[in-house]
Amino acid sequence: MAANRIKIAQDKAELVKSLLASKDTPGPFQTYVEVMIFAAALGVKYKKSVPLGDTTKRDPSPIPQENFSSLGYEKIIKLLGIVETSDIQILASREDEYEDKRTQIFEEYANGGLEILQNELRGIVDYSLQLLLILMNAKDYQDNKIEEEIYLNKFY
Questions:
Q1: Which has the closest alpha carbon to 7: 115, 117, 111, 79?
Q2: What's the Cα-to-Cα distance from 6 to each of 51, 74, 94, 123, rounded to whole Å?
Q3: Which residue, among 135, 145, 66, has the nearest Cα to 99 in the 3D structure?
Q4: How crowded is residue 72: how many other Cβ atoms within 10 Å of its Cβ?
């Protein structure tokens, strides 16, 4: 079964490693799981799903899905699968076909989010500050969209 690990695109490996906190770097995330969840959320927010192409084998190695489950994130992978396919059958956790499809959907949105981060973080020294700005811009965009909808509804 190929879906028991979340793979990372080879061209995003250095970025993923640089986002992780270690004794040498003050990265904004504590685990690779958190990096991938954030990247997938960013990919979904901006509707950017990118096929993986070549993937890493080591450093970072593919992440076991048990790591996502132990941190409570497996629900996000399932939710993303059902939203993307509109097929409730994708939640069938014991079926390899559905597990593979859910994993592929998650990996592609995470890869899209990592591509966005790669562009946004190019040349930036303090990733944490830039991530905060990305989140603030996303919130402002959403708030403005809501205000516009409310404003337009006044004319009906």
A1: 111
A2: 13, 11, 17, 28
A3: 66
A4: 8
Residue 88 main-chain phi, psi, to 5 deg: -65, -25
Q: Are 114 and 15 in contact (CB under 8 A)?
A: yes
Instruction: Measure the CA–CA gap between 156 and 154, rounded to whole angstroms.
Output: 6
* Number of CB atoms found within 10 A of residue 119's CB: 8
Could you give the CA distance from residue 141 to residue 47 in angstroms, rounded to a whole number?
Answer: 14
63-70, long-range: CB < 8 A, 24+ apart? 63/5, 63/6, 63/8, 63/32, 63/33, 63/36, 64/4, 64/5, 65/3, 65/4, 65/5, 65/6, 65/103, 67/31, 67/32, 67/33, 68/6, 68/33, 68/37
What digits encode the pLDDT tens for the residues 39-70?
A: 999 999 999 999 998 998 888 899 999 999 99
Give the single-character DSSP code of 4.
Answer: G
Burial class (CB in 10 A: 0-12, 13-18, 19+), 77: buried
| Average pLDDT score over the chain | 84
Q: What is the pTM of this model?
A: 0.83
